[in-house]
């Protein structure tokens, strides 16, 4: 055990002595999250909207005024029939239609609840999402003012409906995606590089000719990166919660546990890569081309899997990142528990066991 | 013929912070001379050579190589010298012929000249039959001999050889020195470093660097007389030991 | 406690690395494996340190079989691969500490063994290994290989690229270690280091040329050798190479070592031949063969 601790201590020396890599290791997740975050939650400005007002009372007028006075929207068109909605969107200039129900004002006072439909063009899902959020905010604001003056509990129930991309598949997906990439990169690439570096240096020869057992060498290589990856995962989650107000609906403990599982999967992959490459350069190439590209392209991070050609959909099943993204998306966005992601979890566990088994089998106790 | 100086160095110094890796060295090398540049690891040999071949800027002092100033004309120096080091010589993943073509090309030799020269040198090395073999598959001694021929391809006035024979077998090592003799005989100046002290004896003159300074410079014969010993090895040990 | 190899063969793909290697190293002996780069020295080291499996043959280290008992061997030998395999980003002390820990010991426990060597680099103990000179790296690597008090020490080209001063000191250290009962197998491309070993094996192109005490190897040299010298050494070599009676001619320091084909050889005759070829300042004197003469003679066959 003392040997093993000595080994891990050495690994930490390597990591902390290499300032540049360390900076990238911790700087990269932050930079990526900020980049993706700001690129996706773009501010909206002067978005053209249309109004379909079935009620035409003081309440709807007040709300319409409030919306048109905000710098975010400009009302370009007033329409009178549901049938016009389709053609309005097809022209492409109008990004959203507000549909006030009949007797909106009366319902608001009598039933203390009124309905408004927000229809957005979700060909650009991020903008669509932002529009919905902004209009909701304006409605809430309007209600607060009202409730203050009349001391009554009014409620406006906005119904949002997105056309063309109704499930809004890529919203907030960037956090799970970036988290997956970072964990994969840190765990798989860094471990495979640190193992192959010993081969290149020739120190692997001495380690082999020492009483350290091969699995101790491997575990010793892996432990520091488990720590680093956990820290990275935590940083990413905290950043998304506090800077981008990402809702984490589900259990943080489950999220943590699933992340650790994925970290171990990636580490096992890293070990596997190191058993088949002799140089740091080839380890890096395999990690980048063999892991990063599939993660970015096939995991559903950027391109929805359901819109891929069937063969690629099949291939995407063997990519661990796909399952991890499904899991954390479920936990973060839908708030589901283990009961809903046990299948994906089991798949990840299976993959991890497989990678470890292959690595152990391929790991050489000699140089041959 | 041997009166013309092709290297003139005066108080050449290279400092890294307060540490003087090369501390005011002065010497001349004559045309066609085999000049041995010896010293312990870390004595400053490599730093000095880097300044002479124009890839490192001196801190102070003067140095002229083939009539060109190391401060202002490093490019002209590079065109007129050949350089061969033990660490990097040839590309292992190119064939013998491809290496020759490449190095001939970067020195601006015409295709015709490269063809003629490579034929001559391959015949001389006895390697014309394996010109399409990868350099990586050759024994070290052959690589080093080939590498030396490549360094001579553009007919440089001076060739700098940095430990050219390390690890080479005794026969090939001698064949290598015969090549050096031949080049020197034809007027090429040879500037060579080595850890084999018997090779120091092959040189016309030898300088020994200790901690950044040249502590001895003379013919091997005179040095042995001066230190009253029988071999260059003992001269070297005496000098380097005394300082420590 | 010694080392024994019998009929070891090893090939990489098509290339034969070593062929039919057989030799024994006695307990407490300082045994040298002498040969140029690519002769197969490293392959032999890797087989003995259990890092490679031989294709054929048997070998034992300290009585342990290199295949069956590889774990036990790994616990009891010290190995210093070529290129001084140290962690460049760790300091001198951290490197030594690390190797002590993985062998389950501490620096303090075995300090007496490495004291001589380590004291020379101790002033730099906080310097990173990557910033040490070749000689110091070599001493640190030796300290690391010794820290667990191995019974058998394998040193693969420990003096390559190291200057003569450091080399001499290194061999003095090895002699002291030998006195402590450690069996040492060392390889080197520098033939002059052969004389410092108890016994040597000369090796070239994967085959052993001779195994004996250094002096005995030299004594077996079959010819009389003459030191020949002239003002123009290049011309002297060329003239001798074309001379009909020449058996061998090799530059050796300030002289050329010359051997003649004939049984009865008169120096005056050679002198005359050289003079008539236009050489001046000729001296011819008998001399003794050295290890390189012996190696080259054996390598010829």
From TrEMBL, chain B:
Give the classification, highest ranks: Bacteria, Pseudomonadati, Bacteroidota, Flavobacteriia, Flavobacteriales
Q: In this protein, which residues make up the domain named ABC transporter?
A: 7-236
Superkingdom of source: Bacteria
Keywords, alphabetical: ATP-binding, Nucleotide-binding
**Gene3D superfamilies on file:** P-loop containing nucleotide triphosphate hydrolases
Q: What protein name applies here? A: ABC transporter domain-containing protein
Write out the GO MF terms.
ATP binding; ATP hydrolysis activity
Q: SUPFAM superfamilies given for it? A: P-loop containing nucleoside triphosphate hydrolases
InterPro entries for this protein = AAA+_ATPase (IPR003593), ABC_transporter-like_ATP-bd (IPR003439), P-loop_NTPase (IPR027417)
TrEMBL record, chain C:
Q: Which PROSITE patterns match?
A: ABC_TRANSPORTER_1, ABC_TRANSPORTER_2
Give coiled-coil spans as residue ranges. none
**Which parts of the sequence belong to the ABC transporter domain?**
3-230
* Keywords recorded for this protein, A-Z: ATP-binding, Nodulation, Nucleotide-binding, Transport
> Which GO MF terms are attached to this record?
ATP binding; ATP hydrolysis activity
The record's annotation in InterPro entries points to:
AAA+_ATPase, ABC_transporter-like_ATP-bd, ABC_transporter-like_CS, ABC_transporter_ATP-binding, P-loop_NTPase
Short name of one Pfam family for this protein? ABC_tran
What family is this? Answer: Belongs to the ABC transporter superfamily.
Its protein name is ABC transporter domain-containing protein
């Amino acid at each position: 055990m003392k040997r093993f601790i000595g080994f891990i201590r050495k690994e930490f020396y390597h990591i902390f002595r290499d300032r540049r890599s360390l900076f990238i290791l911790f700087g990269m997740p932050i930079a990526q999250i900020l980049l993706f975050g700001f690129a996706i939650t773009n501010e909206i400005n002067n978005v053209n909207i249309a109004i379909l007002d079935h009620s035409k009372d003081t309440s709807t007028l007040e709300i319409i005024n409030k919306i048109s006075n905000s710098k975010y929207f400009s009302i370009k068109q007033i329409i009178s029939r549901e049938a016009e909605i389709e053609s309005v969107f097809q022209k492409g200039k109008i990004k959203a239609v507000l549909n006030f129900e009949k007797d909106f004002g009366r319902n608001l006072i009598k039933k203390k609840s009124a309905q408004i439909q927000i229809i957005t063009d979700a060909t650009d899902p991020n903008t669509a999402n932002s529009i919905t959020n902004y209009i909701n905010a304006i409605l809430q604001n309007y209600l607060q003012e009202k409730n203050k003056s009349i001391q009554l509990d009014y409620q406006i129930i906005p119904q949002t409906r997105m056309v063309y991309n109704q499930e809004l598949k890529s919203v907030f997906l960037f956090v799970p995606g970036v988290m997956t990439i970072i964990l994969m990169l840190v765990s798989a690439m860094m471990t495979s590089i640190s193992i192959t570096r010993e081969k290149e240096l020739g120190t692997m020869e001495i380690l082999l000719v020492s009483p350290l057992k091969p699995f101790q060498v491997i575990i010793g290589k892996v432990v520091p990166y488990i720590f680093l990856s956990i820290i990275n995962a935590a940083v990413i989650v905290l950043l998304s919660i506090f800077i981008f107000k990402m809702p984490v609906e589900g259990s943080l403990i489950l999220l943590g546990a699933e992340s650790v599982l994925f970290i171990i999967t990636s580490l096992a992959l890293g070990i596997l890569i190191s058993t088949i490459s002799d140089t740091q350069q080839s380890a890096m190439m395999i990690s980048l081309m063999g892991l990063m590209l599939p993660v970015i392209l096939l995991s559903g991070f950027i391109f929805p899997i359901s819109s891929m050609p069937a063969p690629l959909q099949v291939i995407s099943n063997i990519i661990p990142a796909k399952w991890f993204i499904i899991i954390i998306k479920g936990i973060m966005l839908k708030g589901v528990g283990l009961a809903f992601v046990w299948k994906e979890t089991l798949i990840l566990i299976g993959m991890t066991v497989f990678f470890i088994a292959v690595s152990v089998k391929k790991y050489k106790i000699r140089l041959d | 013929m041997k009166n013309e100086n092709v290297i003139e160095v005066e108080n050449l110094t290279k400092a890294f912070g307060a540490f003087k890796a090369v501390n005011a060295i002065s010497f001349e090398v004559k045309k066609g001379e085999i000049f041995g540049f010896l010293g312990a690891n870390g004595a400053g040999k490599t730093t000095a050579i880097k300044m002479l071949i124009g890839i490192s800027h001196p801190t102070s002092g003067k140095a002229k190589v083939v009539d060109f100033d190391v401060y202002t004309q490093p490019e002209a120096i590079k065109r007129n010298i050949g350089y061969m080091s033990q660490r990097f010589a040839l590309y292992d993943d190119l064939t013998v012929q491809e290496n020759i073509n490449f190095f001939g090309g970067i020195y601006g030799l015409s295709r015709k000249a490269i063809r003629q020269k490579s034929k001559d040198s391959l015949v001389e090395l006895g390697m014309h039959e394996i010109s399409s073999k990868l350099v990586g598959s050759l024994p070290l001694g052959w690589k080093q001999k080939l590498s030396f021929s490549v360094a001579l391809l553009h007919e440089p006035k001076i060739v700098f050889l940095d430990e050219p024979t390390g690890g080479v077998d005794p026969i090939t090592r001698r064949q290598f020195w015969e090549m050096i003799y031949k080049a020197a005989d034809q007027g090429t100046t040879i500037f060579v470093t080595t850890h084999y002290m018997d090779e120091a004896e092959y040189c016309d003159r030898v300088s020994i660097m200790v901690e950044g300074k040249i502590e001895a410079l003379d013919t091997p014969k005179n040095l042995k007389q001066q230190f009253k010993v029988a071999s260059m090895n003992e001269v070297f040990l005496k000098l380097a030991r005394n300082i420590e | 406690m010694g080392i024994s190899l019998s009929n070891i063969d090893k090939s990489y793909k098509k290339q034969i690395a070593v062929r039919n290697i057989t030799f024994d190293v006695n307990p407490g002996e300082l045994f040298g494996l002498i040969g140029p780069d690519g002769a197969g020295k490293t392959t032999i080291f890797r087989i003995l340190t259990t890092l490679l499996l031989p294709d054929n043959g048997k070998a034992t280290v300290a009585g342990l079989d290199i295949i069956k008992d590889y774990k036990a061997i790994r616990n009891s030998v010290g190995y210093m691969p070529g290129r001084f395999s140290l962690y460049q980003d760790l300091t001198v002390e951290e490197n030594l500490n690390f190797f002590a820990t993985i062998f389950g010991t501490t620096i303090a426990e075995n300090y007496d063994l490495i004291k001589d060597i380590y004291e020379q680099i101790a002033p730099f103990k906080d310097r990173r290994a990557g910033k040490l000179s070749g000689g110091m790296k070599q001493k640190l690597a030796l300290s690391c290989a010794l820290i667990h008090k191995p019974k058998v020490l394998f040193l693969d080209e420990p003096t390559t690229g190291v200057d003569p001063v450091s080399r001499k000191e290194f061999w003095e250290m090895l002699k002291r270690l030998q006195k402590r009962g450690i069996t040492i197998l060392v390889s080197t491309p520098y033939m002059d280091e052969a004389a410092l070993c108890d016994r040597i094996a000369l090796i070239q192109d994967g085959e052993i040329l001779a195994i004996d005490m250094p002096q005995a190897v030299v004594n077996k040299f079959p010819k009389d050798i003459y030191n020949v010298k002239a003002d123009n050494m290049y011309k002297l070599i060329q003239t001798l190479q074309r001379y009909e009676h020449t058996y061998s001619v090799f530059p050796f320091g300030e002289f050329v070592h010359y051997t003649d084909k004939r049984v009865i050889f008169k120096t005056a005759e050679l002198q005359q031949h050289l003079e008539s070829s236009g050489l001046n300042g000729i001296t011819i004197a008998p001399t003794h063969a050295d290890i390189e003469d012996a190696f080259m003679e054996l390598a010829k066959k």
